[in-house]
Amino acid sequence: MTASPDSQDATLIVESPRWRLGYRRDSRYPGLLILSSQQAVSDFSELDAASLAELGQQLRFAEKLLQHCYAPHRVVFYKLGFSAGFSLHMHIAPISHALLSEIAAHPNYSGDPDGNDAILYLSREYGERDLRPEEQQAQRIEIARLREMAGELLRQPSNFP
Asked: What keywords were assigned to this record (predicted)?
């Protein structure tokens, strides 16, 4: 697994031969990540055995990365898979108490939000539209921060075999 990869993809944080961890392109919410298969498949049942074997390690690494960078209340993982043309991928989000309070205060969401409310809110309120220039700059700063922390974590043998 390599951190701060030399890539044309400005959202890429780390990658391995089987998986890539990147920042969600349209996200205004700090730390909203996408873990994508390097295989052109859309379902877990289509992944090769080596990719499946590595998946748990990749999810653990992403969670540790978000915990170190954001100290969230929870980290949530979700696979949607309705958009054509994308490889199998999971969204990974650090959920803070501040985000939960923001959701609870919103008139269209539960006053006692759960993970489902959080993922819907993040997509609707913090994504699904082009980034303005100042949002692009904020995202570049977050990506650089995540790459740096990923590099530090990868230098610690206990964080990734």
From this structure: Hydrolase
* pTM of the full structure: 0.92
What are the backbone dihedrals phi and psi of residue 120, each rounded to the nearest 5 degrees, phi first?
-65, -45
Note the pLDDT of residue 15: 95
Q: How many helices (H) and strands (E) does the chain have?
A: 4, 6
Domain span at residue 155?
A: 2-96+130-159
Write the DSSP symbol of residue 85.
Answer: T
**DSSP reduced 3-state for 93:** strand
Total length of the chain: 161
Model confidence at 119: pLDDT above 60? yes
Domain tally for the chain?
Answer: 1
Q: Which amino acid is at 147?
A: R
Structural tokens at position 112: 């006692």
Could you tell me which of 89, 33, 42 has the C-alpha nearest to residue 61?
Answer: 33
The pLDDT tens digits of the residues spanning 52-80 come to 999 999 999 999 999 999 999 999 999 97
Question: What confidence tens digit (pLDDT) does each residue in 84-116 have?
Answer: 778 899 999 999 999 999 999 999 999 999 999
| Residue 50 forms part of a structural domain | yes
